[in-house]
Amino acid sequence: MTTIPAVPIEILLVEDNPGDVRLTREALKDAKVRNTLHVAMDGVEALAFLRKQGKYAAVPRPDLILLDLNLPKKNGREVLEEIKQDDALSHIPIVILTTSQAELDIVESYRLHANAYVTKPVDLEQFLKVVGSIEEFWLEIVKLSHP
Amino acid sequence: MSRPPDAAPIDVLLVEDNQDDVELTLHALQAAKIRNRVHVARDGAEALDFLFRRGEYQNVPTPDLILLDLNLPKVDGREILEEIKRDERLGRIPVIVVTSSQAEEDVARSYRLHANAYVTKPIDPAVFLRAVNAIGRFWLEIVRLP
Amino acid sequence: MNYTTPEGRCHAVSRALAGSATVLGGLVLAGWAFDVPMLKAVIPGLATMKPNTAFCFVLGGVALGVRSGPQAWRRVGQLCGALVLVIGLATLAEYVLHLDLGLDALLFRDPHPTPGAPYPERMSEMTALSFASAGGALLFLDSRRAPVAAEILALVGVLVALIALVGYAYGARALYAVAPFSSVALHTALGLAALSLAILCARPDRGMVAVLIGDAAGGAMARRLLPLAVALPLALGWLELEGERIGLYGTSFGTGAYAVSNIVIFSAATLWCAISLSRSDAERLRAERELKRSNEELERFAYVASHDLQEPLRMVGNYVQLLGKRYKGKLDADADDFIGFALDGALRMQRLIEDLLAYARVSSRGAEPAPTDANAALAHALASLKLATDEANAVVTHDPLPVVPADPSQLEHVFLNLIGNALKFRSSERPVIHVTAAPRDSEWLFSVSDNGIGIEAQHFDRIFVIFQRLHGREAYPGTGIGLAIAKRIIERHRGQIWVEARPGQGSTFFFTLPATGRSS
To answer: Is the pLDDT higher at C207 or at C190?
Structure first.
């Protein structure tokens, strides 16, 4: 059902490349649905954010997580597994957004219950289109869970 | 974008008992840019037979994507979701719940059972069409399916 | 004539021996013509070389001599070989069937026949057998289907000559005279040896001669042991006979000593050979392993380099594009130009890196060759090229293609590249492209021919080098890696790829793939 919610959607982007972070931010600026983008630069930070630990005590719970697989410290796969195994967090949809096109990565991610797997395109227009499509589906069409 | 033009068509399993909804969905997916084949199961039992290749469904392909209604005759959609996600081969297939129920409980439970997405069916058929188009665009063109 | 390669030297030996046989035959014929006894029988009292024998030596020598000449001469050579065969067989028939076909005295009559000899001009049975074999060997020399026949037949001649020569060396008449009045003359035996060896050396690219002169371990071993195998028994045998003759020891002692010395010397030689060969083999294995390791490292480097380069390149490309989107027309015209050039460069770099990755992946992602239907691979390639084919209004035809051991997606890629190029580099005429495959020895020879702009001969090798292009980027798009990848794929499949073309007259690209073996 395509309703525009009053409260902005909280998106957590887990990405270590500042260039990609900025690109995603730019892409989401034109989104139809108001959204706030939070960024974690590695897996440990991401989990701390989700569990509202330390400096993240007052952050909102994200409605959607965009997760890169190539992360320092804890790699994306581990983060995915941990989130989906945590009862308090497993309801949050995770869209893998990564450069890898490897069959292995794709299958593993779905096996660990990633909600969707999207490859980052090389071309800018394609990238904007992809983020736009993510935004359209997950922010406008999908009904998210708010326990 | 992610598939070459002459690649094999994507197999979609639509589990839906409402005939109007089936027709709308078929119509929307036929117009999709990526070639796809839609298999329809009218109730839960049929769906399970198709997925586990039982009876007349011995030679069907494993679907690449499943659109699942929750309120189904014979076997309930929620049970089907559970069974799919528990299976080694079927568990990785993205399942999109497309249902009329807006109950928070259904939404939460579906996500907890690892449904990939939950979409509530709009009452207005035009809006429904747009929703299915959006599903098609995201899941057939953008997403990498396992 | 190239004397530096073993094959070249072999050819030279063959020629020399054939020449000697011809000269020998010619001299003896002259001897018969002018009644010079010394030419007919080298040592007075010994058997003479008969006229037909001398004639056959000339024919045989000629047959071998004209092999590298023009077509007409080669025909004459084949005729000579056939004639040698006929003379040999006919003479054998005369003996076996007790006939007189009248061919023995066809050339010359014996003016001083030995009393009691029934057919004074007829060659001995052994000689006739030898020539029948030699003639047959000459005819099979260039046969594709039965190359070993020539070798075996030539060896028969060598064997006959060996028997006769050993007979002369040891004074054992029975070895060279099968029946009274029918013996192999000394110079006949030498001539037979020369001719048969000449035939063997005429094809150094095949059979045991190839092995013998090759640089594989087997050849090295044979080259060391074979001379010993021939010379040792001869020398020891002569020693043994001489000892017996002068009464140093009796037959049983002599034979015993002969056996022991053979065993000892041969075993020692074999062991020494084995030791030195395994040493050189071990070195070669080490060199191979070293090469393999450095190849793998290079591939990994190429892969990692191009893979890691992609990400920063993506940043450059994306942000230049973003700059363009946001500030095009807002800064001055120069800025627009600068952004355009930067973007163009980034895009080209991206494509180069993608191509480099594809190049590195030919072996890292290549599948083991399995029986693949080339027709299907071609069909897939054409399906991918449908847009380009329609656009160019091209006609693509093909002969039925075989099943070959290959990685299907890589074979498809080769077709994709070759036909894609044929379409890209088309002339003003309607493009006509034809794909064929024909068997050639133990391979399949594929060809992709077009009527496009062609290629100058000096560039035939360059186009297969990575990133080499013959035309500007404006004229024809592409990074220049397509053919390099195709070459890598074909070579990975143990084939070869090359081109024949002329500017303005189209090009034909050839590549070979091994034919599916009987066992695979």
So the answer is: C190
- Please tell me the predicted confidence (pLDDT) of residue B5: 47
Kind and range of the H or E run holding C226: helix C217-245
Whether residue C410 is found in the same domain as residue C466 = yes
Chains touching chain C, criterion 3+ CB pairs below 8 Å: A, B
Alpha-carbon gap, residue C79 to C101, rounded angstroms: 21
Pick the CATH number of A9-34+49-139 from 3.40.50.2300, 3.40.50.720, 3.30.300.30, 1.10.260.40: 3.40.50.2300
Question: What residues of chain B have any CB closer than 8 angstroms to a CB in chain C?
Answer: 4, 6
Please state which of the ranges A61-65, C140-144, C506-510 shows the lowest mean pLDDT.
C140-144
Residues in B touching C380 (Cβ below 8 Å) = 6
**Interface test with chain A among B111, B112, B120, B129, by most A beta carbons within 10 Å:** B111
User: Residue B120 and residue A147: Cβ atoms within 8 Å?
Assistant: no
Q: Do A23 and C350 touch (CB under 8 A)?
A: no
To the nearest whole Å, the CA of C312 is away from the closest chain B CA by: 21
C355 has a pLDDT exceeding 80: yes
Please list every residue in chain C whose beta carbon sits closer than 8 Å to the beta carbon of residue B6: 380, 383-384
Of A1, A118, A146, nearest to B120 by CB-CB distance is A1
Mean pLDDT of chain C: 85
For residue A137, the 8-state DSSP code is I
Percent of chain C with pLDDT over 70: 97
Q: Looking at the structure, do residues C479 and C508 belong to the same domain, yes or no? A: yes
| pLDDT band at residue C141 using 50, 70 and 90 as cut-offs | confident
Tell me whether residue C263 is in a domain.
no
Contact with chain B for residue C436, Cβ under 8 A: no
The phi, psi pair for C234, rounded to 5°, reads -60, -50
Domain boundary at C364, C382, C397, which? C364
Chain B residue with minimum CA distance to C386: B6
What is the span of the domain harbouring residue C505?
Answer: 370-514
Q: How would you classify the pairing of strands B65-68 and B95-99?
A: parallel
Domain shared by C315 and C428, yes or no: no
Q: Is the pLDDT of residue C42 over 80?
A: no
Look up the pTM and report it.
0.60
Q: In angstroms, what separates the C-alpha of C413 from chain B's closest C-alpha?
A: 14
Q: Is the pLDDT of residue C470 over 80?
A: no
Paired residues of B129 in beta bridges:
none
Residue B60 forms part of a structural domain: yes
Which of C364, C387, C403 represents a domain boundary (last residue)?
C364
In a domain, B144, yes or no: no
Query: pLDDT band at residue A1, thresholds of 50, 70 and 90?
Result: very low
b/e map of C462-501 (b: 16 or more CB within 10 Å)? ebbeeeeeeeeeeeeebbbbbbbbbbbbbeebebebebeb
**pLDDT for position B2:** 44
pLDDT beneath 50: ranges in chain B: 1-3, 5
Identify each DSSP E strand in C426-518 by its residue range. 432-440, 443-449, 497-501, 507-514
Number of domains in chain B: 1
